[in-house]
Amino acid sequence: MTDTKSRIAAYAARVEQYITEQLAAIKSRRGALATDDVFAAMHHSLSAGGKRIRPALIYAFCEACGGTPEMADAAACAMEMSHTASLIFDDLPSFDDDDLRRNQPSCHKAFGEATAILAGYGLICAPFEIIARDPHLSAEQKTALVQLLAECEGVNGMVGGQLMDKHFENRESVTLEELQTMCLGKTGALIQASCKMGCICGGGTDEQIKAAGNYGKSVGLAFQIIDDILDVTSTEEQLGKPIGSDAEENKFTFVNLLGIDQAKTTASAVSAQAHSELDCFPDAAFLHDMADTLLVRVQ
Amino acid sequence: MTDTKSRIAAYAARVEQYITEQLAAIKSRRGALATDDVFAAMHHSLSAGGKRIRPALIYAFCEACGGTPEMADAAACAMEMSHTASLIFDDLPSFDDDDLRRNQPSCHKAFGEATAILAGYGLICAPFEIIARDPHLSAEQKTALVQLLAECEGVNGMVGGQLMDKHFENRESVTLEELQTMCLGKTGALIQASCKMGCICGGGTDEQIKAAGNYGKSVGLAFQIIDDILDVTSTEEQLGKPIGSDAEENKFTFVNLLGIDQAKTTASAVSAQAHSELDCFPDAAFLHDMADTLLVRVQ
Questions:
Q1: Residue B34 is part of a domain; what is its CATH number?
Q2: Cα gap B172→B164, rounded to integer Å
Q3: A31 exposed, middle or buried (CB, 10 Å; 0-12, 13-18, 19+)?
């Protein structure tokens, strides 16, 4: 497991370096536009840390399909930027109204709401530019990546899940199925797409792309269940945002619906399902370990 | 000029039909996600009318390069969705705080701020999905379109211009050069990209793509100058939003900096420059007329 953690850390360092380079490249093309603070806002949110799980999944599946990390850089950077954009919007007053994100002021707290929205807007668009410009991928690979990224973020993915989550605020109760649908959109869609995008970068087969999607669907669900558990069991310092903020707003979470013990059991079961999807990859040891590592967070 | 107007109207009808079909296709893929109101919000903003100038430019340049309208449908729809997303954000309380858009409640007035933001988010992502899925374009064309669209919307295009515009609110004065830079981003970038995207859809040469970009840059600037003029000379009914709303907020406009007469003269001069870019197109009559039609709005 130590090896797994250091490999995840190495992927995180790699994507952070690549993100820095891409942001600098974009800034170098801005001409006369006076946009220092929107670049500062994007940098603020991109460099606030985080586990960089989505890029790690992209690199890992790319390598599991026989690709090199260079082939996955653009997709990994694109996905982390897209994820960061979603966090900026999620923290806004009309959504979770969070002042802190990863122990730092959320983007709108640090830069004001208009600049934060524009930074988020920029971080939705930049990934498509970065994929389109990448020298390591074919036009067919780029087209497939663009489609996956747009769909996992859009109204049938993360945005749709975010909307359902917002509606839950006005509900007396939700079913477990509704909660799952919401999570598969809000947090699961990007994780599922990351796994598939990694296979596309590495030249994987259709069978591998499909299996990666199923793995990602399970891992994404387990990941969200565990986030709900951490929200009530962590300290504010560990979590990087106020503890119990979900419970406080009377949100429906897996913990609220299932209780902590059953939530942990469900996370284990869903995680086990992820393991069963990896047979079509010649070397899946790291992908097995990643699924376990996600679960270890709560033990 | 009557022919020009009816051809623009025909393009508008065509893209509106295509947008309706694409929105229905996306909705049909949503699975269990309960997202009726974000689709309603997207539809509200997309169907509020407008001149559909950007799609018309895409169709016109595609045909000027020898392409068919079918080749331009995806790009035209994508651009109009992207433009509509920018209007949703532009109307938000942290930006222009407009209650009306094209004689109808702005998206956040009709659906609330969170749903409006999510509708805008969805309308930024959907265009990339639509381009990637299009059956009429090659992967190389799709990659080029994705790059152009992402860059014209992003931090070096519309978003960057929007940020500069926002900063102008706190300024004592701005130079004509700063105002032009802001406009070339905020409104010009999408118009310029539309012209280039049309050439890409129609299989145009590099020379044609470049000329189309220059034409679009001039037309976009003329278009904004004329918008500023209309803001002070139109009735609320004609304009579809409160008259003088730009002047009221003490914004810097071409009219404020130049006066109405000089602004009209400048619009004519910039428009003339657009005409001079069209020599490399075998049949550019319609493109000449379009530049004139944009100017006729204020006569």
A1: 1.10.600.10
A2: 14
A3: exposed
From residue A185, alpha-carbon distances to A157, A164, A188, B78, B172 in Å are: 5, 9, 5, 23, 46
* H or E element at residue A104: strand A104-105
Q: How far is A92 from chain B, CA to nearest CA, in Å? A: 9
Structural domain tally of chain B? 1
Contact pairs from chain A to chain B, CB under 8 Å: 195
Q: Which ipTM did the prediction report?
A: 0.94
Q: Quote the domain boundaries for residue B165.
A: 2-296
- Per residue in B129-180, pLDDT tens? 999 999 999 999 999 999 999 999 999 999 999 999 999 988 999 999 999 9
Cβ separation B160–A113 shorter than 8 A: no
Residues of A in contact with B95 (CB under 8 A): 114, 117
Which of B35, B138, B166 is nearest residue A163 as measured by Cβ atoms? B35
A17's tokens: 């370096």
pTM over 0.90: yes
Assigned token pair, A75 = 């997709």
Cβ contact, residue pair A122, B159, below 8 Å: yes
Of the candidates A56, A79, A80, A58, the one whose C-alpha atom is nearest the C-alpha of residue A4 is A56
Q: Tokens 């869903």 map to which residue?
A: A270
